[in-house]
């Protein structure tokens, strides 16, 4: 087992690591070694590396991570959020939200750049149907349409995750109305289903995959359900059932979607069961049992 996962398991079990233990685990981790082997240059690669390294416990203690955050702020940050082009032309709600969540995991929720991005979500991201968004300098339509009569479900969901992560890290509730609207929208869809018929919203939403990509997947949704204390909600039942059915005969889970992109590092690759995914799901479902 990779020592970075040992850190994660220890934290989830309530173990308090000393600073020396933390640094030893990070330095001995093969996965961390892959993540810090090079510094990404292109905007997309920067985003994926940030997301991946943010999932490693205590990775904000690494000089590499702090340098990466500086690059994110210098190359992606704008007064209204995080953009792949550092202007309105390639600003996408899903990427803005994913960067916010990653930076929150890295303890940077109070940074001005993160607050700007969260404020944009609060002011502009539709959390229901039929909301007209009038932002003439933004080119959402070229990517398939983020804000049509029905908002892109991926961008909406990831924006809800970002608001939740920001709230957890800052203990501030200034965006609570928008967050609750988004939660209601996700619950209305039972997290992953169309309203019109009993089928998945899109192809990848039923995937089990980690770390996240621009595709929205079931593990992301399950993790959010835990964070928002929704595991016992009846409208979460179908999501939990779907994930439980994907368990292998030996009681583990496999990643059934392996994303490949510059800057992205898979935590568990190949066709074998995933140690990271298995631990994450078991930890969430354990909490569900404890909540009854």
From TrEMBL:
Classification via SUPFAM superfamilies: Terpenoid cyclases/Protein prenyltransferases (SSF48239)
Domain of life: Bacteria
Identification of the protein by name: Nitrogen fixation protein NifH
Organism the protein comes from: Chryseotalea sanaruensis
């Amino acid at each position: 087992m990779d020592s970075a996962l040992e850190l994660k398991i220890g934290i989830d079990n309530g173990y308090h690591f000393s600073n020396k233990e933390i640094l030893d685990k990070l330095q001995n981790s093969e996965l961390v070694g892959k993540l810090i082997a090079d510094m990404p240059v292109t905007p997309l690669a920067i985003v994926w590396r940030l997301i991946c390294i943010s999932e490693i416990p205590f990775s904000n203690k690494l000089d590499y991570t702090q340098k990466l955050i500086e690059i994110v702020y210098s190359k992606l940050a704008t007064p209204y959020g995080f953009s792949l082009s550092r202007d309105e032309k390639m600003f996408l709600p899903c990427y803005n939200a994913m960067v916010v969540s990653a930076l929150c995991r890295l303890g940077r929720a109070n940074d001005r750049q993160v607050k700007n991005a969260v404020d944009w979500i609060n002011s502009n991201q539709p959390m229901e149907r039929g909301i007209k968004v009038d932002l003439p300098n933004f080119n959402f339509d070229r990517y398939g349409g983020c804000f049509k009569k029905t908002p892109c479900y991926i961008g909406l969901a990831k924006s809800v995750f970002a608001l939740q992560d920001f709230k957890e890290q800052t203990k501030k509730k200034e965006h609570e109305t928008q967050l609750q609207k988004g939660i209601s929208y996700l619950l209305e869809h039972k997290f992953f289903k169309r309203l019109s018929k009993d089928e998945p919203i899109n192809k990848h939403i039923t995937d089990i995959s980690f770390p996240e990509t621009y595709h929205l997947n079931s593990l992301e949704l399950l993790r959010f359900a835990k964070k928002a204390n929704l595991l016992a909600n009846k409208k979460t039942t179908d999501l939990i059932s779907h994930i439980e059915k994907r368990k292998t005969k030996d009681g583990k889970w496999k990643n059934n979607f392996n994303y490949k992109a510059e800057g992205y590092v898979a935590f568990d690759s190949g066709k074998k069961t995933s140690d990271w995914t298995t631990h994450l799901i078991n930890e969430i479902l354990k909490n569900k049992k404890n909540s009854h």
